[in-house]
Design goal:
Length: about 280
């Protein structure tokens, strides 16, 4: 076994010096790491075991701390940008040395004060870094089931697959293209409904309620659109699905249900290719 960077681990005190103590794994005293004096618990003696987090200091030396950082390697959590620089951003995460977020690991521009989920990884040179590309780090053991309401962070949008969401900032979820309504963009905090739980544990979401709950809202939206267009929409429920989605942010079926609801209530009429308010 070896001392692992980016993880909390129990190490044994093998030597005391003026500037701290040296720690090592049981049975491997040759590989050791310093715990600075200000981190050493009062009365600590050789032979004691301490739980520490191991990382690299500003001079790229292996060092340990008894502080609790926000993340360990492979974990996802919400961090805040402390500052930005020429090579990337630096995130506050509970240690004296801020966590580096390289430009290549950013999915969108960030600025000081921004907060968002990131994952912690070890780069090729053995340094700890953050990434906004969190898809492969998200968990698939959420407690949610179909029709549950959830909150999450929308971290990426794909024209092919849909909008990727970190539910509770840690569970893997997707809003399929057919369920993408309104203006959705990376960085949004959203509320959604679980429409499916796949065998692998990943969630499908929708930002809309079930059809029977949405009819009234959709009908009101159609009515407002008619009024905004001067009393008549220049298309009806037989229009192309793409046109309806673009103009109304609804599927064709949802639009037809809403128009049918308004027809039944006598609030509109269909004349030619138009829907007019009565």
């Amino acid at each position: 076994m070896r001392i692992e960077v980016g993880k909390r681990q129990e190490l044994k005190v093998i030597k005391k010096v003026d500037f701290g103590v040296y720690l090592a794994l049981e049975g491997n005293p040759e590989e050791r790491v310093l715990l600075p004096a200000k981190q050493v618990p009062a009365g600590c003696q050789v032979g004691e075991r301490l739980e520490v987090f191991v990382y690299r200091d500003s001079k790229d030396r292996l060092i340990s701390t008894t502080a609790q950082p926000a993340l360990c390697v492979g974990e996802v959590g919400v961090l805040t940008v402390a500052q930005t620089g020429k090579v990337g951003a630096f995130l506050s995460w509970g240690l004296e040395k801020d966590l580096f977020l390289p430009f290549r690991e950013q999915t969108r521009p960030v600025k000081a004060g921004d907060s968002f989920p990131v994952a912690l990884y070890v780069d090729k040179s053995g340094r700890l870094c953050a990434t906004m590309k969190i898809y492969h780090y998200l968990r698939t053991d959420s407690p949610y089931k179909k029709d549950d309401r959830v909150h999450g962070y929308l971290y990426e949008i794909s024209r092919q697959f849909g909008a990727f969401v970190a539910v509770d900032d840690k569970y893997s979820a997707l809003i399929p293209p057919r369920e993408m309504y309104g203006t959705l963009k990376a960085g949004d905090r959203i509320e959604a409904r679980v429409t499916a739980v796949h065998e692998d544990g990943k969630l499908d979401l929708s930002v809309r309620d079930k059809a029977y709950l949405m009819i009234g809202k959709d009908a009101q939206k159609v009515l407002e659109a008619i009024e905004g267009a001067g009393g008549a929409l220049p298309f009806n429920d037989k229009a192309a699905p793409e046109l309806i989605r673009e103009k109304m942010q609804m599927s064709k079926n949802e639009f037809k249900r809403a128009v049918g609801h308004l027809l039944k209530e006598g609030k509109v009429e269909i004349t030619g290719n138009e829907i007019q308010k009565k």
